[in-house]
Amino acid sequence: MKKIRLVLAGTGNFSRKIFISLIKDSRFEVVAFISQPNKELDRNKNVILTPVASLANEFNIKLFQPNRTKEIYEQLAAMEFDFFITAAFGQLIPNSILKLPKILPLNVHGSILEKYRGAAPIQHALLNDDNKTGISLIEMIDKMDAGDILKEFQIEIKKDDSALEVFDKLANKTSELIGDWIVDIYNGNYIRRIQDENLVTFAPKIKNEDAQLFNQMTTNEALNKIRAFNDQPGAFIMHNNKRLKIYRATKNKIKSPLKIAFLDGFLYLIEYQFEGKKKILHEI
């Protein structure tokens, strides 16, 4: 069988993990990567490559980093590829580019659709204390996360899972499955599931202020925010007039140097950081 040609669009570590599995799979040829522009600087003010940009450099694969994907339409149109695949890319893909792949444009979406469409499905699953989530591989259309579902799986969310653990579980499982999924779709071995618009819920992009905790919350509400925003931006509370970021906490009474009172009890801090100070990890 001839190699299936892929253009892959993603930005962070979640994308990188999935894309590595496709690079190393002999059934595929990755002809180009697309990543968001590099925005972070290190202490010496040198540009830090996004994880996907770094991956492209590592394997010497063509890389685009447009401010808007439409800027590279002509370059992509000059290529021949079977699938255009996005995973946590962070930009809307114009319809003109969705029409370019010979087979399909696909999106690896981090939820069990029809719940949750949008930019932050994993965080909203944790905020809502869901006990499961998953991945939906969908056909991309010109409406956000509304395309037909072609493949999917589910995982359990454990009570001590934060966003970091859930992202890792989903990325690892997707890495195991996505190669076979793409081959199945290439060969027509799949069943479309049309989304029911009456069941749709949304997970909008997280704002920094969404991560603020208040003492008037219940311990459950606060703990769900801490779990959801563990990766970024980090849940925070004003404590003794200081901004305190909380990355991990527990309702179980432990010998922690710091505990915070909420409406129905205390949270004992495991990992936290005062503004301008080093992060503290308390061994339990």
UniProtKB/TrEMBL annotation:
MF terms from GO for this chain are: methionyl-tRNA formyltransferase activity
EC identifiers of the protein: 2.1.2.9
What keywords tag this UniProt record? Protein biosynthesis, Transferase
Locate the transmembrane regions by residue number.
Answer: none
Q: Where is the signal peptide?
A: none
Listed InterPro entries: Formyl_trans_C, Formyl_transf_N, Formyl_transf_N_sf, Formyl_transferase-like_C_sf, GART_AS, Met-tRNA-FMT_C, Met-tRNA-FMT_N
Record domain Formyl transferase C-terminal: where: 205-279
- Keyword Amino-acid biosynthesis attached: no
Asked if the keyword Protein biosynthesis belongs to this entry, the reply reads yes
User: What Gene3D superfamilies does its record include?
Assistant: 3.40.50.12230
Q: Where is the Formyl transferase N-terminal domain?
A: 3-177
Pfam families assigned to the protein according to its UniProt record, in alphabetical order:
Formyl_trans_C, Formyl_trans_N
Q: Which CDD domains match?
A: FMT_core_Met-tRNA-FMT_N, Met_tRNA_FMT_C
Q: Looking at the record's lineage, which domain of life comes first?
A: Bacteria
What's this protein's family per the entry? Belongs to the Fmt family.
Q: How is this protein named in the record?
A: methionyl-tRNA formyltransferase
* Classification of source organism: Bacteria, Bacillati, Mycoplasmatota, Mycoplasmoidales, Metamycoplasmataceae
